[in-house]
Amino acid sequence: MKRPIPIDEEVIFDGGVMITETDVNSIITYANRKFREMTGYTKEELIGSPHNINRHPDMPKKAFQGMWETIKKGNYWEGFVKNLRSDGKYYYVLVWIKPKLDENGEIIGYIAGRKIPDKDLLERALAQYKVMKLDE
Fold first, then answer.
1. What is the distance between the alpha carbons of residues 95 and 77, in angstroms, rounded to a whole number?
2. Mind listing the pLDDT tens digit for each residue in 33-74?
3. In the prediction, which pLDDT does 15 show?
4. How many distinct structural domains can be found in the chain?
5. Distance CA 111, CA 121 (A)
């Protein structure tokens, strides 16, 4: 699927929780209605697509490297993310990700939730992300 061209227009997330599930390779296996509505993608477009389909190019790669290091070890991760909608507009969310485990404790996928970010904490995170982007 072709990535949209980013537009400098923010869409405010109006609440609720966006949920997605992926396999161990970050391929989307489930996306709730709230996630589909906010991203502008259909269920058919999302299921089977890489989860980074909505990654905004402003996000530093190092932020996601740290996330992957954490969740691949079986740990919970939380952070602020700027995401890209199918129409090119962007939105900010507080994301939490935790591994899904099988009966033997092996990671079989991941579940992620997104909610409205605290503005003050988001501003601090964005300042850190700017510094991280300079190093890329």
1. 8
2. 999 999 999 999 999 999 999 999 999 988 899 999 999 999
3. 86
4. 1
5. 23
